[in-house]
Amino acid sequence: MPDRFPKISLDALVVIDAIARHASFTRAADELNKVPSAVSYTVLQLEQKLGVLLFDRSNRRICLTPVGRELLEEGRRLLRLASDMERRLIGRSKGWETELRIVVDTIFGTQLLFPLVEAFDTLESNTRITLREEALSGCWDAITNNRADLAVTGLGSMGNPSGGGFDIDVIGRLNFDFAVAPNHPLAMLANRQDEPVTDDELRPYRAVSVADSSLTRSTATFGLLTGQNTLTVASIRDKLAAQIAGLGVGFLPSFLAESEFSAGRLVKLCVLQPRPAATFAVVHRRGNLGNAGKWFKYQMLAKPSLFPGLYS
User: Fold this and answer.
1) Model pLDDT for residues 161-194, shown as the tens digit of each residue
2) Calpha distance 119→128 (Å, rounded)
3) pLDDT grade for 1, boundaries at 50, 70 and 90
4) Exposed site from 3, 103, 244, 288, fewest CB < 10 Å?
């Protein structure tokens, strides 16, 4: 019948690690504040339990046997895991989450939060941070189904649920422009003065759409006309690239489109039905944030300039 408890303790692994690094029982004992006999006894006891030799003692310089090297390699991994767990548990007792999951609308992407992650690292909370990008109602889906703790998402028709239970802090509004490639047939209408492009003129041409990443909620679409052919992509960056390539047309966030207009890679059209400005907010379930979540939320609200194109 197998033993109820493992033969290898973390304390024994610490001793093996110290001996291997110093190639000496005596120097390992000094590091661990033990007498050499206690270190030797720990190794001997472990060797007897396992029925193997961990150290070759035939030479003056102590060295690991092949079995000892394998034990040390796996043992160091366990020691790192134990140390990480200890730090996280200590952090948890002080109000720091073990993990914080943040989702960000594809319009902004997760890279905009990298400076916050770098600043957060100086707090030494040992909270694991997960950043993920979602599209359209995907951020709300992640919050409502406990796949995320904090979200930067659109409001209104973006799929936010009715009812209470959520803290919603608006960080700004975002404008959109209708854009086409300069070689697209619709580009010639850009010079038409005081006559917006109608839906009937747009409908024959393919639109580029970002796929809604929601797993459980009704998916949303924007700027698509009934009967219009579509090219569906995974992110706003793919949408931008597809429209620059002339593969389709559609609305883009103004802050992304403006530089492409200036560079001549896209042309702006005045359309009869422009896309309304979208309101974006930091959202979370009420009362669910620990110290890490509160820190990130405060930073996002205090520095809305992290998210380009937003205005009050």
Assistant:
1) 555 789 999 999 999 999 999 999 999 998 877 8
2) 14
3) very low
4) 3
pLDDT band, very low/low/confident/very high, at 20 (cuts 50, 70, 90) = confident
- 10-93 matches 176-269 in fold: no
Q: Is the pLDDT of residue 65 over 80?
A: yes
pLDDT confidence band for 62 (50 / 70 / 90)? confident
Tokens representing residue 193 in the block: 């003065």
Measured CA angle at 307 (ends 210, 121), to 5 deg: 110
What tokens does 297 get?
């939320």
Q: What tokens appear for 204 in the block?
A: 């024959």
Per-residue model confidence (pLDDT) at position 72: 86
Running DSSP on this structure, what letter comes out for residue 150?
E
Pull the structure tokens for residue 294: 């509160």
pLDDT at position 239 over 50: yes
* End-to-end alpha carbon distance in the chain: 70
CATH topology of domain 99-174+278-306: D-Maltodextrin-Binding Protein; domain 2 (3.40.190)
Instruction: Please give the structure tokens belonging to residue 131.
Output: 């950043």
- 230-233 vs 207-210, strand pairing mode: parallel
Contact 110, 236 (CB under 8 A): no
Joined tokens for residue 162: 């009715």
Q: CATH number of the domain at 176-269, please? A: 3.40.190.290
Please give the pLDDT value at position 111.
95
Annotated domain spans of the chain: 10-93, 99-174+278-306, 176-269
Distances (CA, A) of 29 to 75, 80, 184, 200, 259: 19, 21, 76, 84, 65
- Torsion sign (Cα): 150, 155, 158, 164: positive
Q: Contact, 12 vs 46, CB < 8 A?
A: yes
Cα(178)–Cα(11) distance, integer angstroms: 65
> Span 10-93: which CATH code?
1.10.10.10
